[in-house]
Structure formats: C-alpha cells, structure tokens
C-alpha cells in the first residue's frame, strides 16, 4: 500500500497591478485538489510579509497549502500548470513556487520567514536557500516570488486571524464592485468583536472591497469561521459570485513590527520598533505632517507621522523627555533628510512634565505681575505688591500614557486593531469538511 506524503506548497508574486491575485490561484488549486479527494491538513495560509518592500503589489501576501497525498508528483505537475495559467507574467508578475515534502518544518525555514517579515530579502538569497535545502522549486520572470513562497511554508503562527475572500466570476474582473455600505456597516456591528476593519464609521467608507482589477470581490477578516460565514449572510450583492475560501493569516497581528530596530539594522525598507526618549521639539510641516527625533541607545533617529494616519496630533504634542515606543517602516535617505521611520504606532509610556517659566501671580489681585525690567523683579500694577523671580507653571498635557494607532482607514493588512490588543489565537479548529471552501453552483 502506498504511503501518503505530507506536501507543503508555497507560492507568491503571481499578480500584477493590472490583474490576477495569489489568493485566487490558491482558490483554484484547492478547487482542483478537493475534487481529487486530497486531504487538507490546515486552512490555506495567507502570510503578509514586510509591507515596505517597494516592488510589492498590494499587500505583499504569499500563500502556502499543506496536504497529504499518495501521488505528490502528479499534484506538483498540476500546480505548476495552474501557476503558469493564473500568473500575470505579461504585466510584471514574477511567480515563485516551492514544494517541500515533510511532516515537520525545519527551523531554517522559520528563520527565513521571520526575516522576510521585516527585512528586504534578495531573490538570489531565496534561490540559494532553495538549492541548499534541496527544495523542488519553479519560477518565472526574475524569481522574486520565491522569497514569499519559502516564507509562507516556514511561517510559525504565534497568533493568527482568518480571512474569508469572496471571488468574482471572470466576466466581472475589472468591473466596478457594487455592495451596500449600510449592509457592511450592519455586518460590522453584528459581528463585532469577532470581525475587524470592515467599515470606517467616521468616514462612511467600506474597507472590505479592493479597488483594483483583481478577482476578489470582498474580504472579511475575523477571529473564527462561524463569524465569517455569518458575515457573508448579512452582506448582500446583486453580483453573482464564483465562491469563497477562508485563509488562516497573520493579518491584524502587528507581526512586522516586533523586531527592535537599532543603528546597525536600520536599513531602507525594513520594519520594526524603537524604544527611546523624544529628543527634540516636534516640527509640523506643510500639510500637517510631523517630524521628530527619538534617542535610543545613544543614537538619534528621525520619525515621521503623516496627517492621513490621524495620529499626527499625538506626535505634535510630544515634548523632549517623553518616553515612547514607536513602530514603522524605514524610508531611505533623501536630499533633505536622513533615513526616517514612517510611524505606524506611538505607544507613550512616560510623559515628562511640561513646565513653563511665567511671571508671578499677585495673590491679592489674582493677576499676573509685570516685569520692572531686567534684574529688577516684578510688580502688580493694581496693588503695587512686588516679587523677585518668575514662577514655574505646569501645563496640562494633551496626550495620555497609552497606545495610539492610525485611523482605521489608514491601517495596513498587518496593523493590530485596538480590539485585538491582548488577544492571541494560538490554535484554531480546522474543519476537514471544507466549510472553509465553497464554489457556488451556477
């Protein structure tokens, strides 16, 4: 009797700004495999890597699928064909596909994946890794997709969310998506806190629909399968959809900002956090953007907070001496600035007292005294009472010791929303009955 093999399949960079989607390829792969009664060992995994990579399309997501099969060679050939069929190579996609036959994932994979979360990894490093670890791999174009393909297999979940992605029929690709804003708002209210980032109530903006020509109609992010399936029943659309699939993901975990940045690893396009002391008075520039410096381990780093994030007012109210932890992506140096960290959160852990020297107050008249001239003290112009020196006044701070994150519309895929602070999904029940996958009947 032929033994079943555990096959890990990783792929990435099959889309371009003009079309297709790596998750749609995953949907097509699962459709093919489930028809052959192949056993799935977990949800398809959608892993978002470093969002600051300059050549990424949309959310820098890669996918891996873990199955058991008696005929891995047949499966590999089928998947290679699907990768070629559903990759937008003519518009710049550089797909990478990796196969790894093993029940356990070595630490080398996990280390590679962890680096891809916050660093820029050269595609040649991925090719070298694949050869050194005797991986069966396939790529087209320049092979950039191999980075995400290896990383998606190696990713080790310490926390996770789920996302239900609903797909359009091919005839609708590139056409306007029509969905009721009121239904999305109701869905968010009824499924909170088990779904997140679906609707921006402040701006009245739908957040579940992409804007490009890709095959996704909408994506609902949440904590469990039942909440996502319930959400789809509330969301109504006149458009007849093709089907849906639920992915296990690191979205909403803040994964890319866990690594601590320092003077040695602060490289362009890297992501991470820094703990330090505000070392200058923040500068507000045209457009309302705020720049300030943070001192950490005897090195100063420039930070930028842009107006659309909604936390520029927090940054403008920082003063020298405030202790903070900030996280974000590193922008490369320009003519006017050195490398800058574009902030995605500000966590205020200590507020310095904002002290101001002021003319003394007359206790009798409750009025500020006037200066009599340099070194001549102060005098109340009403009653004539005198004082020799200025007093120190504490100005109330306009910010608090707390975590500040951007407005919901400015969240990235990996941003941990406030409702997920303190939440960690270590395990999730995987239902082998395929409730997480559906192709609607015509």
Structural class: alpha+beta
Tell me the strand percentage band: 25-35%
Name the CATH class of the largest domain.
Answer: Alpha Beta
Distance between the termini: 39 Å
Please count the beta strands (DSSP E, at least 2 residues each): 25
Summarize the structure in words.
- The radius of gyration is 27 Å and the shape is elongated.
- The mean pLDDT is 94.
- The protein has 442 residues and is α+β, with helices and mostly antiparallel strands.
- Strands 1, 2, 3, 4, 5, 6, 7, 8, 11, 12 and 25 form an eleven-stranded mixed beta sheet that branches. A five-stranded mixed β-barrel has the order 13-15-16-18-17.
- It folds into four domains: 152 residues, Alpha-Beta Plaits, CATH 3.30.70.2200; 89 residues, Alpha-Beta Complex (Glycinamide Ribonucleotide Synthetase, Chain A, domain 4); 114 residues, Beta Barrel (OB fold (Dihydrolipoamide Acetyltransferase, E2P)); 42 residues.
- 40% of the residues are buried.
């Amino acid at each position: 009797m032929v033994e079943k093999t555990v096959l890990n399949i990783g792929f990435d960079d099959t889309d371009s700004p003009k079309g297709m989607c790596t998750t749609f390829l995953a949907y097509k792969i699962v459709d093919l495999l489930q028809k052959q009664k192949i056993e799935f060992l977990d949800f398809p995994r959608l892993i978002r890597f470093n969002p600051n990579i300059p050549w990424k399309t949309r959310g820098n997501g890669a996918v891996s699928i873990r199955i058991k099969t008696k005929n891995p060679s047949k499966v590999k050939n089928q998947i290679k064909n699907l990768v070629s069929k559903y990759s937008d190579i003519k518009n710049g996609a550089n797909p990478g596909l990796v196969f790894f036959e093993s029940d356990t994932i070595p630490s080398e994979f996990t280390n590679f994946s962890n680096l891809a979360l916050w660093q820029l990894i050269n595609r040649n490093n991925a090719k070298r890794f694949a050869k050194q670890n005797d991986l069966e791999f396939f790529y087209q174009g320049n092979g950039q997709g191999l980075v995400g393909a290896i990383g998606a297999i190696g990713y080790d979940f310490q926390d996770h969310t789920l996302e239900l992605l609903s797909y359009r029929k091919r005839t609708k690709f590139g056409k306007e998506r029509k969905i009721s804003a009121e239904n999305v708002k109701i869905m968010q209210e009824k499924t909170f806190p088990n779904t997140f980032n679906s609707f921006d109530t402040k701006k009245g903006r739908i957040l579940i629909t992409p804007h490009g020509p890709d095959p996704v109609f909408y994506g609902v992010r949440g904590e469990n399968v039942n909440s996502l399936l319930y959400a789809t029943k509330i969301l109504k659309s006149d458009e007849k959809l093709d089907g849906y699939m639920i992915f296990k993901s690191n979205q909403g975990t803040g994964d890319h900002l866990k690594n601590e940045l320092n003077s040695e690893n602060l490289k362009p396009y890297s992501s991470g956090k820094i703990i330090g002391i505000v070392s200058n008075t923040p500068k507000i520039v045209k457009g309302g953007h705020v720049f300030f410096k943070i001192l950490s381990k005897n090195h100063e780093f420039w930070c930028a907070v842009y107006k659309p994030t909604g936390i520029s007012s927090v940054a403008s109210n920082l003063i020298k001496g405030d202790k903070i932890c900030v996280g974000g992506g590193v922008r490369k140096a320009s003519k006017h600035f050195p490398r800058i960290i574009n902030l995605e959160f500000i966590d205020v852990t200590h507020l310095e007292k904002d002290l101001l020297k002021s003319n003394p107050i007359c206790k009798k008249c409750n009025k500020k005294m006037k200066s009599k001239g340099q070194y001549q003290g102060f005098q109340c112009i009403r009653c004539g009472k005198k004082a020799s020196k200025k007093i120190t006044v504490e100005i109330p701070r306009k910010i608090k010791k707390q975590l500040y994150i951007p407005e919901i519309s400015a969240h990235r895929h990996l941003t941990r929303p406030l409702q997920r602070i303190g939440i960690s999904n270590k395990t999730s029940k995987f239902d082998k009955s395929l409730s997480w996958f559906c192709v609607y009947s015509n």
